[in-house]
Amino acid sequence: MSIMPELPEVQNVCLGLTTTVVGQSVTRVTVRRRDIVRGPSRPTNMLRGYTLTRIDRLGKQIALVGQSPNHRNNPGTSGKTAHSPPCICIHLGMTGSLRFYPKDKPHKPDIHTHIIWHLNNGGRLAFRDPRRFGGLWTFDSVSALHEIRWSKLGEDALTITPSKLHAKLQHTRRAIKSALLDQATLAGLGNIYVDELLFGCGIHPLRLGCDVSRQETQRLVRQMRALLAKAIRLGGSTLRDYVDTTGRSGGFQYLHQVYGRSAQPCPRCGQPLACTTVSGRTTVYCEKCQP
DNA sequence: CCTTAATCCTGGAAGC
DNA sequence: TGCTTCCAGGATTAAG
Description:
Layout: H1 7-20, E1 26-31, E2 37-38, E3 51-58, E4 61-67, E5 87-91, E6 97-101, E7 113-119, E8 124-128, E9 135-139, H2 142-148, E10 155-156, H3 162-170, H4 176-181, E11 186-187, H5 191-201, H6 214-240, H7 245-255, E12 274-278, E13 281-285
Parallel strand pairs: 2-9, 10-11
Antiparallel strand pairs: 1-7, 3-4, 4-5, 5-9, 6-8, 7-8, 12-13
Helix pairs in contact: 1-6, 3-6, 5-6, 6-7
The structure holds a DNA duplex.
């Protein structure tokens, strides 16, 4: 089973990028597949000539924020848009990865390596995505990213408050699982964590969103933060000893109590876990523990 | 409003 | 063993 980039994985990618590419400037960009750059894409020229100043994240989406090298020497000659830094938004989709290769580490791009940023320290950042569900969007400014793209997303799963989530859930008659998967409700949850979360909270995936009480929502948010935080920590540790298969699979199993365990005994009551489809997604749950 | 289905795509698993 | 088939998944779109 390969790593699925949901919020915790994306967060770890961001942490990695912060320590490797932030502060570096982009000397050259190789676009090996043009169609992986979606939407109107000419303006930022893929950040060539810019310095990467920071990495932002909302839900599962990553933003590489650039800054013109002469920005400091040339402040405020015209309107604010002139100095709003350009950025690139990256979604890893199902199989996307963003990997940094230091100067001395060789890197042989294969057919699935779509974009390579060459950095001034000799390092390279490579976007690879075999299945190509992921993609990349360029923006003139961070504010454009927020207005055009991130405004459609709900609050980040790590920071949303119980009352905000409850307000969103209250006026929907969709299944709770569908609502939680919808990035417009809150950003960051995917199929795996939604199943785990609902199991952890003892909530049936088909319960109506508006039937989830304030107290249950509180439990949901509390559990969600704990789950994501744990996964982030674990991701960090699995990255360190990536080659150690046993350590990695052990952590993986610990996190997944229901996902991928259809018909296996419920970790809480022992009854075989049920499997169904909700919003077109495989859904595993316990009929007894999630009434 | 809401759901379902189709679409995109490839690698891995299962079946024969 | 090698071939075929199926299926997973997120987001978007169209259709019911």
